[in-house]
Amino acid sequence: MKIINSVISCYLKSRIQKKPPVLRIETTNLCNANCTTCPRSKMKRKTGVMEMELYKSLIDQAYDMGVTKVHLHNYGEPLLDKTLIEKIAYAKEKEMKPKIFTNAALMTEEISRKIIEAGIDEVKISMDGVTKETFESIRKKLIFEEVIQGIENLIKARGDLKSPKVSLVFVALEKNRHEAEMLKEKWKARVDSIHITCYHNWANEEMNKKTFLEKVQAKIPCARLWRTMTVLMDGRVALCCLDYDGEVILGDSTKEALSDIWQGKSYKQLRRLHVDGNQKSMKLCQNCTIGRL
Fold this sequence. Notes:
alpha/beta; nine-stranded mixed sheet; 11 helices; globular
């Protein structure tokens, strides 16, 4: 394991760039659901929608840095942002590839058409069940039939176009894993991809399963520190997409340039901790169960 970790560490050191390969912008942290797999109920920070001036500043900086991938989501439902269409279009104008992760409950025919016309490149949709009972027991506050209709609306609006890529994401839990293969059979011919994932914890949440503990003990550096910059709704740059309450702030894009934050002291210190296998010294990293690579 020490040899493997050494090789990975050397590889990640060589991957430090002047830009993040992916910029994740939390256009809103408002949500119309209360999913059992999401920590939003514990979130104490202010909720709202990112101001357009700030958003455009982030996109302009990302363009100057050479960033091409931008994810317009984090802890919220992006379709609740009334300015989302304009935000997608602005990112596209800057030659970027915008992507959203949605629950699709608000994906009307009109919105489907507009996000496609604006230039959305990829739409990922949470779909944790094939039956109404299973789905609604996990994706609380959502109505199964409305989500199905939302997916249908997007597929219909895309028609024969090659873009956006449409994919479904199924988080396997004890109560729904028996429906995973059913989901594949139902949708495989109609969407571009289906991802079956395992549940992970959030920001140092305690997990007791042996497989999770073994993964944590491996001390493999987390590639997110080299791969993705996460900007919260108010402009602060958070540790990563698992830091739902913004406990570890690496910079503030309303006061600092994104390039300065990415190459700044806070990021460098965290990367060094991970490369040296000292994740346990970081509260939010010490028990993280998400895949390290």
